[in-house]
Amino acid sequence: MRTTLPTLAIASACTTLALVAPASALAAEPEDIRFSFAVDGNSVTNTITNSSGTVIGCGTSLAPAPNGVLPPVLEVIGNGQSLYTNGDTQPGSTVQTIADVPAAGSYVALASCTSVDGDTTTAWMSDYPGLDEFLNGLPWTSHKVEQSSTVVTVEPSTPTTDLGSLLDSGSAN
């Protein structure tokens, strides 16, 4: 039962992506998909490079990584993740953005893409320690994708002072 729940969580996430992924004649290769994460203010972006030649379904998610330490895989892939986005990814580069990420925190940045060709499903998932245990039990081809970063840090925002509003309010007198 211990591995059943996480396996079902991965299968559920991938199946959801598979349902939105268009069917195509895809000769899927491990290097067809690449992920690259960056932080811009309190948004995290994932630039997905899709070299497969077809539209595929992809998702990007964040999970807390206190002090930059990778949490166990069960905490990352389990239910309850609220910082995510997903959608179709065209051939070339597509950017997925998770906006309004709570500031002053470290997060594990993960992504997955899925393609369906008839009865064959192929998934590309961010490489993460312990993920193999769950991918091996799934009935489709899975490729682990090394990415440019695993942990991203969102810095606390610095309040800015609008001098014009202070002058208009009379508080600068």
Keyword list:
alpha+beta; 3-stranded antiparallel beta sheet; disordered N terminus
What order do the helices and strands come in, and which of them pair?
Blueprint: H1 4-20, E1 33-40, E2 43-50, E3 56-64, H2 73-77, E4 83-89, E5 92-98, E6 105-117, E7 120-126, H3 132-135, E8 141-145, E9 151-154, H4 163-169
Parallel strand pairs: 7-8
Antiparallel strand pairs: 1-2, 2-5, 3-4, 3-6, 6-7, 6-9
Radius of gyration based on Cα positions: 19 Å
Count the E strands. 9
Provide the succession of SSEs: HEEEHEEEEHEEH
Helical content class? 10-25%
**Spatial gap, N to C terminus:** 68 Å
Which structural class matches the secondary elements?
alpha+beta
**Strand composition percent:** 35-45%
Outline: globular
Q: Total helix count? A: 4
Largest sheet: 6 strands, mixed
Question: Average pLDDT across residues?
Answer: 77
Runs in which pLDDT lies below 50 for 5 or more consecutive residues are 1-26, 161-167
